[in-house]
Amino acid sequence: MGAVRHILYFVYVGFAMSCAASVEMNFTKHDEMVWNLRVAEAKKANVNAYDPHPHHVTNQLNSHVHKATDKSSNDTRRGLHGQILKGPCIATNPIDQCWRCDPNWDKNRMKLADCALGFGRHTTGGKGGKVYVVTDASDTDMVNPKPGTLRHAVIQTEPLWIIFKCNMMITLSQELIITSNKTIDGRGAQVHIAFGAGLMIQFVKNVIIHNLHVHDIKATNGGMIRSSVDHFGLRSKSDGDGISVFGSSHIWIDHISMFNCVDGLIDVVAASTAVTISNCHFTRHNEVLLFGATDGFTDDKIMQVTLAFNHFGNGLVQRMPRCRYGFVHVVNNDYTHYLMYAVGGSSSPTILSQGNRYIAPVDRNAKEVTKRDYAAESEWKNWVWRSQGDLMINGAFFVESGDPKHVFVSGEGMIVPKPGTMVDKLTQFAGAIGCKSNEPC
Predict the structure, then answer these.
(1) What is the pLDDT of residues 143-183, one digit of tens each?
(2) Are 161 and 109 in contact (CB under 8 A)?
(3) For the segment 188-245, what is each residue's pLDDT rounded down to a tens digit?
(4) Model-level pTM?
(5) Residues identified as active-site
(6) In degrees, to the nearest 5, what angle opens at C-alpha 210 toward C-alphas 207 and 216?
(7) Strands 243-246 and 285-287, bridge-based pairing
(8) φ, ψ (nearest 5 deg) of residue 289
(9) Who is most buried in 150, 264, 302, 330, counting CB within 10 A?
(10) Whole-number Å distance between alpha carbons of 437 and 441
């Protein structure tokens, strides 16, 4: 095609800074025009998605957790919007209580889109669109994907709620490029994305990824790949992330089981914002979550991520998450295993750690939960990192920093988190779960 090879460190139109965790692409002049338009649209959407009052978001989530765990409501369980949930169902956090106790969940799948909390709370995915049933686990044609395959579903223009006909093992030949207004819903089947490329959410908005197993993801060599119904182009080698959120907004990743990817399990980079990662189970990995890819990319200051009700389990080493810039709410997660540290960062991110359980490893040199990179204490002492209601076990300790007088919210407006002693209950069903028709999930 006469394409000139370029290694792109993707930057927004008018951005001067480059992003080191970027995607390499080969492209023609037409490709450049297509991607520049997507970048410009994504930049506008991301700026609009940024919440100037993040403490309102953290308060709202904590309020819902209190309601969900209120003993007085055990007999008549209620979801986020007041609906009464009856029957033998155990849903232990407010996101799950919103939908899991409904025996007709499979007839009303899109109800899930009303259940997100945190910074990704406005994500609706493919709600209101058609249901697309994936019937074919193959992934053989990157330019003209076969109808019925997952790749064919995610490139469509219109909103879609994507479900699976049966249990599937999908080995992606190249990274799966997902367009806006999509939900990938694995409920009712055991769906594994494994032994190939991962999921790429790049310069789009409004995507839900729900109830999948994502593991053993490899770096792939790239090639001609269709990124929408009206565009394909030549992309270079992928990094090998399980799920990459790149320059995107209104993203919700929920009930995913993840392990053993070549690079990270989840990356949120390139000024992505309005993201919630919830109810996931992470195991067997070194560098787990990366929020912000390089210290030089200051546009990540608009990044806002909620990390809630996740279980960080066996075989994890570090980066749970590792943050740059932005605001990260780490709330009611269970850190049963970490070998080096749990929460780290550089470039002055704001980190609010609330109601988590941190269990330190045996190694006496790895008791500290936190880690600051590339900065002397004289610099990082000004970064706002707070621990509230966290439970520290086996000698774990969280080093706070920032102005001692700094408060996220105080007085009557402050809603304290549920304490770390509650996380075994709140994270009880983390990871992909088995759901059967006509039964609570």
Answers:
(1) 999 999 999 999 999 999 999 999 999 999 999 999 999 99
(2) yes
(3) 999 999 999 999 999 999 999 999 999 999 999 999 999 999 999 989 899 999 999 9
(4) 0.91
(5) 319
(6) 105
(7) unpaired
(8) -125, 130
(9) 264
(10) 8
